[in-house]
Design brief:
The structure holds two protein chains of two kinds. Chain A contains eleven helices and no strands. By secondary structure, chain A is an all-alpha fold. Chain A has one domain. Chain A starts with a helix and ends in a 6-residue tail after the last helix. By secondary structure, chain B is α/β, with parallel strands linked by helices. Chain B folds into two domains: 242 residues, 3-Layer(aba) Sandwich (Rossmann fold); 63 residues, Alpha-Beta Plaits (2-Layer Sandwich), CATH 3.30.70. Chain B starts with a strand and ends in a 6-residue tail after the last helix. Classes of the chains: A mainly alpha, B alpha/beta. The interface between A and B is medium-sized, with 26 and 32 residues.
Chain lengths: 265, 330
Amino acid sequence: MKKYLTVFSVSWSNGFVYRLNFILWRVRSVIVILTVYFLWDAIFRNGGVIFGYDRQQILTYVFLTLVLRSFILGARSMDVGGDISDGTLANYLLKPINYHFFWLSRDLADKLLNIAFSIFEIFFLYFILQPPIYFQGNVLLLLVTVLTILIAVFLNFFMGFIASTTTFWTPGNTWGFWFIYLIIQELLGGVMFPLDILPKAAYNLLMLLPFPYLLYFPINLYLGKIPPIEIFRGLAVSGFWVLASYYVLVKFWQLGLKTFQAEGH
Amino acid sequence: MPTIIVSHLSKYYRVHQKEPGLVGSVKSLFARKYYDVKAVNDVSFEIEEGELVGFIGPNGAGKTTTLKTLSGLLYPTRGEVSVLGHIPWKREAVFQKQFALVMGQKNQLWWDLPAIESFILNKEIYEVPDEQYRMTLNELSELLEVQDLLKVQVRKLSLGERMKMELIAALIHSPRVLFLDEPTIGLDVVAQKKMRDFIKVYNLKYKSTIILTSHYMDDVKELCKRVIIIDKGKVLFDGQLAQIVRQFADHKILSVVLEKELSRKQVESLAKLGGVRELEFPKLVLEVPREHSNKVAAKLLSAYPVADLNIEEPAIEDIIREVFTGRDIS
């Protein structure tokens, strides 16, 4: 266990090495937040309810997407494909360390770093925008929301890792599947728009896939827009996908290692 | 039991062939021709504890592939391997804690952090006790003279300094078996010499078993008593370095000091005696078949103005070079 804590802390110090780079990255995320926020703010300027969301709900949705997005979807482990492709993976295969836990530790370190900075930004943004944020008072619902966020973190980790693992068979193409995965995240994960604006049939089908549980589901839980029965169903479906993606990852990984040639070494 | 046992090891890679140009690229999208490259083909050897063995051969001979298989990075196509009684590609932690692979062309250090951070990480990964870690680190950094550089960002180090740090990172868990793949590549002569001295001391002091590959004959000559020569995936020679000459050299070298310049006729008739390697008054060097060396020497003494004559064995470097340039010596 201690080795992974050390990975965590080394990863953290690595993140701090390039301060300017890091600050610029944060500035970028603030600009993105402002852009999307003002867009939706303009749409709802005249009040009313669109697609079942009023101004307060949609602005809270947008605000939460932007905050949670870097926490849930941000992942260092997208570098795994590069490791496989240029043979750096060999360094880890030689050592008594679990490569998946290694990256999980690095991801968590990264996420924590992001959270630490997000807190400042959130206060900052909250004071300039004064958004009409919806506060959820139901403690139980808040707890379930936290649980679904954790599920989302692992689900994203496993699925992203599967995308990277394909590099074993398409060396050099380290980004191809990641890009597809990123687009799917944005579209089907609820980053671009809340998924319940889709037709009912499409929506129901979508809720059987893993993607809505990345962002859309936790946020709408917080907003209190999901009926109890669907909460249970959602937990079951996302729980299933966590296990399934983990299983696929392990299988893919074992197969991939057989083809791995530690090139460039 | 020997520390390393390799028995009939083969490793084939499947690669696809692409015809040149755009047409070839498009074709290769649809129908790919695959063929097997026999990187390692039926290789067997054993290495005892504490041995320092040189592994030499031209580029693409199969050295690195063999080392990768011994380290558990590759699954062999055929054959068996045992290192310290373990099957490497099972990648058991007990095994991994006892060996290290250092590659001169690759690094494991965190580029943006001081080397000491990578050492600490390795200490935890290999679960090295605090006391042992401190001792090992002190000793290694002293031997390699890098105590002052431990806290400098790796990217700011010179290649030689970085290579030393790589070695420390690889040795922090005091491995019993060490694979060194081109550890001196790209280093200047002074740094090469330092590295060599270190390897020698390390081998003697810790009785660790070491396999070393290098393109520099000096490395091998100075460090290894025993060498394994491998080419095209096959072992050509496995034995004492000194034996290479006896086994492979089919010729001897006659080096002559002449009393006066040779006439044109004399020069022309030299070719009948053997291969002229060098002729620049007063020096003449001939390469002659081993079995004729005495006869040729006698002839030279009688028919040429010879001041001095020596019959020598060819240099190891020359023999190895012949192996490397593809002359069939088996």
